[in-house]
Amino acid sequence: MKAIRYIIFIPIIFVIIALVYTLLPLSLFGLMSLSKFWLIVLLIFFGGLTVGLFAFLPGGITWLSAKISPNKEFAFYSILTISVLLGISQIYSYWTNPDLNENGFGIFLGIMLTCLTIGFGASLSVGAGIEMFEEKSQSLSTVLSIGTFIFYIGIFLAFCLLSTKICNINPDKTYTWYSGIWHGIFVIPHWVVSWFSDDIYCKAPNSTTGYSIWWWISFIFIGLGMLGGGNRRREY
Predict the structure, then answer these.
(1) Do 220 and 231 contact (CB within 8 A), yes or no?
(2) pLDDT for 130-184, tens place per residue?
(3) Between 20 and 30 A from 86 (CA), which of 9, 15, 70, 179?
(4) CA geometry: angle at 38 spanning 34 and 42, to 5°?
(5) C-alpha 27 chain-centroid distance
(6) How many CA atoms lie within 13 A of 222 on its CB side?
(7) Burial class, 93, CB count within 10 angstroms (exposed 0-12 / middle 13-18 / buried 19+)
(8) What are the helix and strand counts (H, E) for the chain?
């Protein structure tokens, strides 16, 4: 019976990890296919929950897989090997995909997906190992911290991507004061994406004076205020 558990463990964990890596880009592109209304609703009411789920999922999978395996050390090294190999394969597929390398926006998508994949890979690889090997917990914790940091860079880039759908600026349209409030909130994520695409604007080229005034007010008090609030929360 124990031998059977050894035999079936590797294909089971391979399918689980491959499924996670495959669903990662599909879920992001699925969000981009939503209407602006439902995307806003999802981010407001379920954004934090979704990020928490993405952060918890790899560790949860690793923990459950360790329970299935007849040997914790065998489970750890199996998960480590499979997640690293599949992660490298997934990242390689991103950067060899001609659709992602033909323009700057595709490069942005490649960077975002690479960061998310590295974050998932680090969590899958060392999440269970921290509890299994006390003598290696310090080094594994360092790897996990680096992977988590890269993962949240990917989350931020994903938010920047979604913001281009929530708050798209049409250069041929003239915007008034209330649009200035909305556009000012998303200046920073639009600014990041604009490094890779000339079609993304931080401020409408055609606008009224009221738009410019409220754009600056919104940018300073809401856009920058959100960053300041996030920094204060991290200090506590």
Answers:
(1) no
(2) 555 655 666 777 777 888 899 889 989 998 999 888 888 998 999 998 899 899 8
(3) 70
(4) 105
(5) 11
(6) 14
(7) middle
(8) 11, 0
